[in-house]
Amino acid sequence: MTQRLKIDRKYVPVLTTIVVFALLYLYGAVLYKGMRQPQAFFNLLINNAFLLITSIGMTFVILTEGIDLSVGSMIALTSVASAALLEKVGLSPFIVLPLMLLMGIVFGGGMGAIIHFFKVQPFIVTLAGFFFFRGLCFFISLDAIPITDPFYRTLALTRIQIPFFERAFLSIGAVVSLIVLVVGMYVAHYTRFGRTVYAIGGNEQSARLMGLPVGRTKIAVYAISGFCSALAGIVFSISLLSGHGLYAQMVELDAIASVVIGGTLLSGGYGYVIGTFFGVLVTGLIQMLIQFNGELSSWWTRIAVGALTLIFIGVQSYFASRRQGRTLSGMETSFPDAAQTAAAAEDALTIDTS
Amino acid sequence: MDQSTSIWHKLRDSQLFWPLLALGLIMLFNLFFTPGFYDIEVKDGHLSGFLIDILNRGSMLMLMAIGMTMVIATGGVDLSVGAVVAISAATATVLINPALANQLISSEELIQDVTRTPLWLCIVAALAVSTLCGLWNGLLVSRARIQPMVATLVLMVAGRGIAQLITNGQIITVYYSPYFFIGNGYLLGIPFSLFITAIVLVLVWLLARGTAFGLFVESVGINARSSFFSGINEQNVKLIVYTICGFCAGVAGLIYSSNVKSADANNAGWGAELDAILAVVIGGTLMTGGRFSLLASVIGALVIQSISTTMYAVGVPAMAAMAIKGLIVLVVVLLYSEQTKSVLTNFVERVGAQS
Predict the structure, then answer these.
(1) A351·B338 Cβ contact <8 A
(2) In DSSP terms, which residues pair with A146 in a beta bridge?
(3) Which bin fits A141, alpha (ψ -120 to 50), beta or left (φ > 0)?
């Protein structure tokens, strides 16, 4: 009997997130009438569409043991640049939209190339990107630019009816985010590229020795993250119908927190895109509960998200130490970074000899 | 040939060389493009001018860079310093007038030039709280073995919430004049904040270089495991380093809140962690850990502050200046990278061989 109920250990973190989400939602539904409406759940998807898109890009980066701190700035840059091109230059949205996505890919890929070719830590390069993109916004415009383009307005006001639910709808942005989710899951789990991403996160040195295209994949991962944050920026600017350099601050933190809560290891090589989906839902739900409560100030959201991130990291390191404890000696367990140091030393050696 | 390479090597090996060069370039730029940059005049019995302004405003950044240097030298990073600045500022200002966090109080009571808590107690409390924040980071990194970036990310996310919890979500304005002296006062015509920075620098320097602690830090940064095997308690080294970083951020928070005479939990120390990390990187301490120089980081902080002040002087909007800062950082990081260094060294040696 117990044998049949046993769940594969690798799914535990993702399932934990789903259970946490379900319990939190149940708790909310018991307390607040409004949350029992199906639309409450769909609002969660609508309000967090841009965060979901960003977080999926971030998941790929974190799976390769990288980090992308520039996503929030990229969202702001996309919103300002698209608003300026639409309103001040007067370009058609059908030119602006592909242009923005291209910008995301180029900037993201550029950062990836610097990370790969100059062997600089992802953290510091994307930090420079964080500054650069947000600064660019203010070179374009110091004030918020409202978007009056009719196509954007139609996109913003379109409601997509959900079958089988009365008066329940999704926005275009939410539908786009769900499509990105499905594509992200397919790419991560069913393609050669996805397996290479996991291999690099597991051990970059081994991946290279196996003949996998490490450089190309690493650059592509940052390009994906750039693309996703540009797409998120478009969704964001459609929902607000304006562009400003101060938008989407701290989104990089929310995205990282969502990925972590979704069960992806920050040391790379382990995690699921679907986990990120539930991670985003949990962070969104915390915000929603605090809004429904009405008495707690919005800054409790930050504390709650921080605490939840810490708990999930704690759970992760517990599982990581148990996994390592089975394969390695006790000494290795107390030094999880030792293997990395060794790999880095090997890396340095190969550079010297070449 | 030997001579030219040896001079090159000596220059390149000094950690102070590159940050000083960067500072020199900015100063040279200002000599030509910013009129009145080097004017220093005596106003109300103290010095004033762009250079003094850089030093005064840079003191906060220098303090954070001092703490951050040793953290980065152990191979870690502290993303929470901005949040700790906000917490420290919130604690001190709330203690000066607890009523300020309450909206219902009448305005005459608010603007009185009095303090509800002795000033020394406010300062000690703010420093204690921020040191505790550092200790918390240190515990997460050294005992719970969480990656430094993630461990400090938690406080970075939650810290501003905690600061707002302390201030009850209000922007607290201080009307107690002795408190202004910390960030606005002048001693012997020189900003008082500089003296504080100097004292902290000397204290940390004595700890790092007067004892073996600095070597321990570098050893842990190069290889934590072999340090452990050679008898260094690497857990405690990390713990101390993060605690010092929290303390330094706390001092910076005091100077900040005193300088702007208020505490805004949302904006105090906004982006400060990034500036502090950049200062350390410009100072030539590698993000992977190892050799560090406190003085080079302080110069790095001055470089960042000079860049910001220069931009304002030239008339670039504060937010747009971030783009240029980002580019400069990228260039600096690329210059420091091993790839560029080996290319440069090869180039210099080839030129030397030809001549």
Answers:
(1) yes
(2) A242
(3) beta
Domains of chain B and any CATH numbers: 41-316 (1.10.3470)
Q: What is the pLDDT of residue A198?
A: 94
Task: Give the CATH number for residue A131.
Answer: 1.10.3470
Q: What DSSP letter does each residue of A34-55 carry, written as one string?
A: GGGSHHHHHHHHHHTHHHHHHH
Cα B125 to Cα B92: distance, rounded to the nearest angstrom: 7
In a domain, A327, yes or no: no
Residue A121 touches chain B, beta carbons under 8 Å: yes
Closest CA to B173 of B105, B260, B268: B260
Query: Whose structure tokens read 């539930």?
Result: A278
Nearest to B119 by CA among B95, B100, B98: B95
Q: B162, A303: Cβ pair inside 8 Å?
A: yes
Nearest chain B CA: its distance from A86 CA (Å): 21
Q: In the prediction, which pLDDT does A352 show?
A: 38
pTM: 0.81
Contact residues on chain B for A299, CB-CB shorter than 8 A:
160-161, 164-165, 169, 265
Tokens of B296: 């080079």
ipTM: 0.74
Q: Nearest-CA distance from A65 to chain B in Å? A: 12
Distance from the Cα of A168 to chain B's closest Cα (Å) equals 33
pLDDT at A73: 93
